[in-house]
């Protein structure tokens, strides 16, 4: 698992509306991540801003809610 220091996407949204270009980049990253998971028959079932983290470079990371 990666160490993600950018915080939750929820924190950015809570501060106010995102610029359209920024929101579009996050959305495209999210769709790519979901597509990657679905292509491997993995389904998240709990996607929400609190489960979407950002690294130092602003790249979106999907937090897994699976328990082993």
Automatic annotation (TrEMBL):
<dbReference type="InterPro" id="IPR008271">
    <property type="entry name" value="Ser/Thr_kinase_AS"/>
</dbReference>
<keyword id="KW-0418">Kinase</keyword>
<dbReference type="GO" id="GO:0005524">
    <property type="term" value="F:ATP binding"/>
</dbReference>
<dbReference type="GO" id="GO:0004674">
    <property type="term" value="F:protein serine/threonine kinase activity"/>
</dbReference>
<feature type="domain" description="Protein kinase">
    <location>
        <begin position="1"/>
        <end position="68"/>
    </location>
</feature>
<protein>
    <recommendedName>
        <fullName>Protein kinase domain-containing protein</fullName>
    </recommendedName>
</protein>
<keyword id="KW-0547">Nucleotide-binding</keyword>
<keyword id="KW-0808">Transferase</keyword>
<dbReference type="Pfam" id="PF00069">
    <property type="entry name" value="Pkinase"/>
</dbReference>
<dbReference type="InterPro" id="IPR011009">
    <property type="entry name" value="Kinase-like_dom_sf"/>
</dbReference>
<dbReference type="InterPro" id="IPR000719">
    <property type="entry name" value="Prot_kinase_dom"/>
</dbReference>
<dbReference type="GO" id="GO:0007165">
    <property type="term" value="P:signal transduction"/>
</dbReference>
<keyword id="KW-0723">Serine/threonine-protein kinase</keyword>
<keyword id="KW-0067">ATP-binding</keyword>
């Amino acid at each position: 698992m990666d160490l993600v220091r950018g915080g939750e996407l929820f924190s950015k949204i809570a501060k106010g509306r995102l610029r359209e270009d920024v929101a579009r980049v996050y959305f495209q990253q999210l769709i790519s991540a979901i597509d990657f998971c679905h292509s491997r028959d993995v389904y998240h079932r709990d996607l929400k801003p609190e489960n979407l983290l950002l690294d130092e470079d602003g790249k979106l990371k999907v937090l897994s809610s699976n328990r082993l």
